[in-house]
UniProtKB/TrEMBL annotation:
Listed name of the protein: NAD-dependent protein deacetylase
Binding residues for Zn(2+): C188, C191, C212, C215
InterPro entries the UniProt entry points to: DHS-like_NAD/FAD-binding_dom, NAD-dep_sirtuin_deacylases, Sirtuin, Sirtuin_cat_small_dom_sf, Sirtuin_class_I, Ssirtuin_cat_dom
Originating species: Opisthorchis felineus
Keyword Metal-binding attributed: yes
Listed PROSITE patterns: SIRTUIN
Cofactor annotation comment: Binds 1 zinc ion per subunit.
Residues in Deacetylase sirtuin-type domain copies: 46-299
CC terms in the record's Gene Ontology section: nucleus
């Protein structure tokens, strides 16, 4: 449905793309709780705007600028909450606030590699909330990424998410860097055999721990835990940042390194757009004049 909604064709005019991009950006910001009174205006509109409208209009203008053809997007758990998947740090509803039932020594232990080796049960219990089953579908934020891809403006998506919703939205693997891994592949913790994702899914559905078909030891999905290295492909981000015209940051707390460091590594002459519930990372300091910040509650 969404593909038909926004497909304009390879010979779209700049004005058409700006109108569609504006609508998608507006819907995407609303999905983050950003309430803007802005309406989508073309550059010829004579009405003036201020405050939140100015920030939104700046975002639309740079997004639709003719020279902006290599956009890098950084995404976190916040882009998937509209799909029904909880994020990690939102007070009251985030996963870390609802882990008391697992009797963990500290909240992040559920994703700690050493703790998983000693007790994989909490992770497999929590995995029911995160596994990319059919009940979770891409939302407007994911389709916004697809819009950028379809119009040949997407250089790369770097995501912290393991829900694979970017893939489901149609972002091809060569445009996607899953910095924190994926549930779609899995590995035995002992013999290191690759294990079918069906083994993991069946275990999660049965509320058990997945076991290796070869040696019967615990299987771990190929999502990155604390204490593990990020995929080698992630470390090529510097090459992408050297080519990019625009960086968009959506739905992330920018608290987990080294992923958070990507936003700080963007050259200062490149515009960064933050779409989030709150200001995060170096966006808090407002020391880069080119930054555009769209928040749930703008200061």
């Amino acid at each position: 449905m969404f593909t038909r909604l926004y497909f304009i064709g390879p010979s779209y005019c700049g004005r058409c793309f700006k109108a569609v991009a504006c609508s998608f950006l507006q819907l995407t910001t609303i999905s983050f709780g950003v309430q803007t009174s802005s309406r989508c205006r073309m550059s010829s509109d004579s009405e003036t705007s201020s405050g939140d409208e100015t920030e939104f209009s700046r975002a639309v203008d740079i997004l639709a600028a003719e020279h902006v053809k290599r956009i890098v997007v950084l995404t976190g758990a916040g882009i998937s909450t509209a799909s029904g998947i909880p994020d990690f740090r939102t007070p009251g509803s985030g996963l870390y606030d609802n882990l008391s039932q697992y009797k963990l020594p500290w909240p992040e232990a559920v994703f700690d590699l050493e703790y998983f080796y000693s007790n994989p049960v909490p992770f497999y219990t929590l995995a029911k909330e995160l596994y990319p089953t059919g009940r979770y579908r891409p939302n407007i934020a994911h389709h916004f990424l697809r819009l950028l891809y379809d119009q040949a403006r997407l250089l790369r998506v770097y995501t912290q998410n393991i829900d694979s919703l970017e893939r489901m939205a149609g972002i091809p693997s060569d445009k996607l860097v899953e910095a924190h891994g994926t549930f779609l592949t899995a590995t035995c913790t002992v013999c290191r055999s690759k294990v079918s994702s069906k083994v993991v899914k069946d275990a999660i559905d049965a509320s058990t721990v997945a076991k290796c078909p070869e040696c019967h030891n615990v299987v771990k999905p190929d999502s990155v835990f604390f204490g593990e290295n990020l995929p080698e492909r992630f470390w090529e981000y510097a090459k992408d940042l050297a080519q990019t015209d625009l960086v968009i940051v959506m739905g992330t707390s920018l608290e987990v390194y080294p992923f958070a460091g990507v936003a700080d590594s963007v050259p200062r002459f490149i515009t960064r757009i933050l779409i989030n519930r709150e200001s995060v990372g170096s966006f808090r300091y407002r020391n880069r004049p080119g930054d555009i910040v769209l928040l749930e509650t703008n200061p």
